[in-house]
Design brief:
Length: 266
């Protein structure tokens, strides 16, 4: 009850502040990143209870039905043929999410154009699925979007999971297109997420990172999501307080990620 009351008071203060400073303001944008099956949708659903937050889930249904074509299924079945087409459309739909206006001061997005480029497109290049010429085209589009469109982020929540855990989750959720996803594919994606968000080894990180250990069973992970509520929302208020125009940082972030580690359960 006390935690609920504190959350209520915090949001009331936040709401009053934003009402006083709402003109020409971008929303505080949080990118929810992680491997396939890491619990991103569940994380976003946890925040549906807060009326000052807009949730934008990954546009999977658009990928599954573009004028009747299931691009996600085509990509998984024949990646060498369809990866370029699929990732081109992913970029388009992700840019739409980044640019979509929201009526609330905080926006949570499931994945982003950054993870599309730094994790999925990068993985396809390294595994020979994309020809280098195809990669060059996708990378040029990404650079153009970065330079000419407002796709800044203020915070990244990284749902860190073990490849074996998400492999089992994918099997259980039985999404038809994903049944052919091998463990190695998940291992490769995991390492790219780690190198991008934790090790900062090969790509720019557009915002500070909060790491949540998401290996817990999805029925138990809610407790860990609750721990992140104030972390996310205090940062939102802090950024707005410091910058009346809510200008996101343009330079790569180099600071160490913040870890939210679950308590031991006996």
């Amino acid at each position: 009850m006390l935690r609920s009351r504190i959350s209520t008071l915090f949001f009331e203060a936040q709401r009053c502040f934003f009402k006083m400073n709402s003109e020409n303001r971008k929303p505080f944008t949080v990118l929810v990143e992680g491997n396939i099956g890491s619990g991103k949708t569940t994380f976003l659903e946890h925040f549906r209870q807060f009326e000052d937050i807009t949730l934008l889930t990954e546009p999977v249904e658009q990928w599954r039905n573009l004028r009747g074509w299931n691009l996600l299924d085509l990509m998984y079945k024949d990646p060498a043929k369809w990866a370029m087409t699929f990732q081109s459309y992913v970029s388009l739909t992700m840019v739409d999410m980044h640019l979509r206006p929201t009526p609330t001061p905080v926006k949570l997005m499931e994945r982003s154009i950054f993870s599309a480029r730094y994790c999925f497109v990068e993985n396809m290049l390294r595994n020979g699925i994309l020809h280098e010429a195809e990669f060059a085209v996708l990378d040029e589009w990404f650079r153009f979007i970065q330079q000419h469109m407002s796709i800044d982020a203020d915070l990244i929540v990284y749902l860190k999971t073990s490849p074996s855990v998400v492999h089992e989750r994918i099997r259980k959720r039985a999404r038809s297109e994903e049944q052919c996803v091998p463990l190695k594919y998940l291992e490769d994606l995991h390492q790219l997420h780690e190198d991008w968000l934790v090790n900062r080894a090969f790509a720019e990180c557009p915002a500070p990172v909060v790491i949540i250990d998401a290996d817990l069973d999805l029925s138990q992970i809610t407790d860990e999501y609750k721990k992140s509520e104030h972390q996310i929302l205090r940062k939102a208020v802090d950024v707005v307080m410091r910058s009346p125009n809510k200008l996101s940082p343009k330079k790569p972030v180099t600071g160490s990620p913040i870890k939210i580690v679950p308590q031991m359960r006996l």
